[in-house]
Amino acid sequence: MATYPYRSLNLPNELRILTLFPGERSDPVICRLSHLDLTTFEPFEALSYCWEKSVVHSRDLDEKIISISTEESPGSPGEPALICARDTLGMHGMEYIYIGFGGALPGGTISCDGHDMPVGGELLRALQCLRDAKEPLRIWIDALCIHQQDIVERNKHVKMMTSIYQNASRVRVWVGDVVGLEPPLFKVLDDLDEIVIDLKEKLERSRSIEDRQRCFMSHPKWYSVDWYTLAQFLDRAWFERVWVVQEVANAKEVVFQTGQHCRIAWDAFCNHIINLAKCRLTEQVSHPSALANLVTMTDIRQRVQAGRKGSEASIPSLLSKMRNFKSTLPSDKIYGVLSILDPDISIDVDYAQPAETLFTNLAIRHLQSGNLDLLNYCGEPHHPTTLDLPSWVPDWTRPKWTSPFSERGLKYRAAGSTKPHFSIDASSKTLRVRGRLLDAVAIVNNAAEIPMAQYEPYDRLAMDGDLDARARTKMMYKRAQRKLRDVDENMVLLAWPWPRDFGWAKYENLWRTYMCNRLPDNEVPSEIYGLGWEDHMEWKFENTAYEEDTEDTGPYHKLIMKLFLDEEAVRKRSAFKQLFSGLWSNRVSRANRSWCYNRRFFISEEERYGWAVDGTRPGDKVAIINGCDFPFLLREAPDGGTYKIVGDCYIHGLMEGEALGDGYTEIELLIS
User: Fold this and answer.
1) Is residue 468's pLDDT more than 90?
2) Are 656 and 413 in contact (CB under 8 A)?
3) What pLDDT, in 10s, does the model give residues 443-465?
4) Are residues 602 and 588 both part of a single domain?
5) Do 438 and 654 meet the contact criterion of CB atoms below 8 Å apart?
6) Considering Cα of 395, then 398, then 403, then 407, what sign does the dihedral take?
7) Residue 179 in contact with residue 96, Cβ under 8 Å?
8) Cα separation values, 195 from 219, 220, 271, 315, 576, Å
9) Both ends of the chain: CA-CA distance in Å?
10) Domain assignment of residue 510, given as a range
11) Which of 13, 257, 332, 378 is least enclosed by beta carbons within 10 angstroms?
């Protein structure tokens, strides 16, 4: 098939616009490409979509057997038949099964200016559904309006994304064809609307997140909201792609579209999600990565619309937020955010350049500004990667289960007022810094599942009033919470494997470490929060106990407390906690979630307690690097002369400049 004869563009002042001629869904797609001068105003729309399949997950569609009963099913008309899910592709009214199970639509051909033009299956379906039955549609679509085989043109278009999406009268977000969830999705949004309207005054008077949570969960409709449908809608590839962020950020108006007729305004959908996220109620929806991505997109869109684009200094933080977004090409993790950065920031777009060169040059550029905060975003070497990068260069293609402590808002000055002192050896790709080796990891609590498992609190059948299903759902919740309780139980057992290992100094170090010795507002907790930690631990054990575990309140309360306090002292302590420690307990829990999310508890060789990234191993060295606010874990490289960055860490007792005294010698550290 001959390729379409693209005419050259006068870039960056000109672009191509696709005119999609009217037609019904089943009609052939007929269109034309024309050039548009950006200095003149001619209205057009823009499309935001995924090139491949629309649903994220993938099942073996040849193995998935379903029962259907339609006029098209094999056997006698109207009788149920067992077929493969793949076979529903093309069956009228049943294709949503194939799409919903993660099936990829077959590609096809459209007619553009009289030329046959091959297109992918998802774009073909979008074109069939987006066009009007009577009026032509003028729309910009990257796959068709950019000559994809012309690398020079592609490079220049990356710099034009801001003007393209800003000039579009509307951006249509194609999330995929219908999968049968659309009517109940509208009901979910209506239910959330009603809840928010009913609670408006109460929410305005609420002083804390906990108060707002109680408001939502006390509403009679809260437990009947179909969270399953919302989760399924978010199970779309669009919510995971890096390019879509700048597309919605720069758009005047954004509309979600699925199928021909289901359209939802961006604000109508996202505002509810953001409200739930702010109240930490999004665990109701079992698709945490999509939710986090949607919150990130909404935040970036608000900033860009308000004229606050990313600065040079904010690039690492922005790229960190984009780690969980996916891109086909590694370089697109950088190029995909250029249009949401300040236009004065100059980063050359060159797809012929290796991604390793792009990532390394960006890291050097940031380090040479005199700021070593970039190192906080390095590490987690256990994640597979296709890139060959030194450990001091963040690999933005790797997912990161937790963000750096600094990004989460924790405030410390582990290196005191020391200034950065570093140099880069370009030939060996080695970073030389000044710092101190303080300690080493001895034990790591590997009991936690990282990333933390999400649970689906409402079984689909439970929506229909099935009491057995509700009981199963309740047990599912308890099992998920018990996993979290087991992590804390293991932490205590690692700290005090035998009663003789217990001591009140260790006790205080442990509860302070549990919350990184900071309340959610970064205040240092007073000693009374030790009782709050006890109360939180006791609640967690009691809340997850099975019927046969009624006495199960954890190793600390079952064993250690009874050995070190007499019965009367234990009774008085418990009574005091019941009366006064509710607020303390809640703030302990919030601090732990805020600072230590998806991190692993560890004990050092000097018996200090701390928090590290997943992938930490015994033997990793605890180091402070001059000019950095948080310690790092370093791992000796195979060459024996250099170290690899594992990640930032918290280590109790060495977070506020204590290591700058005479006990630790400043040395040169080589990081490869």
Assistant:
1) no
2) yes
3) 999 988 887 755 443 333 333 44
4) no
5) yes
6) positive
7) yes
8) 7, 9, 13, 38, 37
9) 49
10) 456-596
11) 13
421 with 516, same domain: the answer is: no
Unique residue bearing structure tokens 């000796």: 636
* Whether 380 and 511 share a structural domain: no
How many structural domains are present in the chain? 2
Amino acid sitting at position 406: S
Residue 523 falls within a domain, yes or no?
yes
The reply to whether 586 and 606 lie within a common domain is no
Task: Indicate the residue among 573, 596, 619 that finishes a domain.
Answer: 596
Bond preceding residue 183 cis, omega within 30 of 0? no
Task: For residues 520 and 554, state if they share a domain.
Answer: yes
**CA 418/CA 413 separation, integer angstroms:** 10
Pairing mode of beta strands 422-425, 115-119: unpaired
The rounded distance, in Å, linking the Cα atoms of 18 and 9 is: 14
* Cα angle value 568/570/571 (rounded, 5°): 65
The first and second tokens of residue 564, run together, are: 């070190």
In this model, does residue 618 exceed pLDDT 70? yes
Measured between alpha carbons, how far is 458 from 284 in angstroms, rounded to an integer? Answer: 8
- Cα–Cα distances (Å) from 493 to 439, 510, 615, 650, in that order, read 22, 11, 21, 20
Distances in whole angstroms, Cα of residue 354 to Cα of each of 38, 332, 434: 32, 12, 31
Instruction: Kindly report, residue by residue over 643-662, the tens digit of the pLDDT.
Output: 999 999 999 999 999 999 87
d(Cα 7, Cα 35) in Å, to the nearest integer? 9
Looking at the fold, whether 529 and 608 belong to one and the same domain comes out as: no
**388 assigned to some structural domain:** yes
Q: Are residues 408 and 430 in the same domain?
A: yes
Question: Given phi > 0 = left and psi -120 to 50 = alpha, else beta, which region is 554?
Answer: left
Scanning 433-500, the segments in alpha helix (DSSP H) are 467-495
Residue 452's closest CA among 266, 616, 598? 598
Answer whether residue 402 is part of any domain: yes
Does the CA dihedral 237-389-615-444 come out positive or negative?
A: negative
What 3-state class would DSSP assign to 547? helix
* Structure tokens belonging to residue 661: 């005294």
For residues 590 and 603, membership in a common domain is answered with no
Report the greatest alpha carbon distance in the chain: 91
Q: CA-CA distance, 136 to 25, in Å (whole number)?
A: 14
Cβ neighbors of 663 (< 8 A, separation 6 or more) are none
Q: Which positions ≥6 away from 33 have C-beta within 8 Å?
A: 4, 6, 16, 17, 18, 19, 112, 113, 144, 145
* Domain final position from 552, 576, 596: 596
pLDDT given for residue 580 in this prediction: 59
The answer as to whether 587 is a domain residue is yes
Of 210, 219, 213, 214, residue with least CA distance to 191 = 219
pLDDT of residue 57: 67
Residue 461 is predicted with a pLDDT of 35
Give the helix/strand (H/E) hosting 423.
Answer: strand 422-425
Residue type, 50: C
pLDDT in tens, 72-83: 545 555 566 666
pLDDT at 257 over 60: yes
- The DSSP letter of residue 548 is G
CA separation for the pair 274, 388 (Å, rounded): 37
Phi, psi of 336 (to 5 degrees): -70, -10
Residue among 315, 291, 449 at smallest CA distance from 371: 315
CA distances from 602 to 33, 411, 501, 514 (A): 60, 20, 16, 11
Q: Are 660 and 432 in contact (CB under 8 A)?
A: no
Neighbours of 451 (CB within 10 A): 15
Instruction: Tell me the helices (H) and strands (E) count for the chain, helix number first.
Output: 22, 20
Task: Tell me if the bond preceding 451 is cis, omega within 30° of 0.
Answer: yes
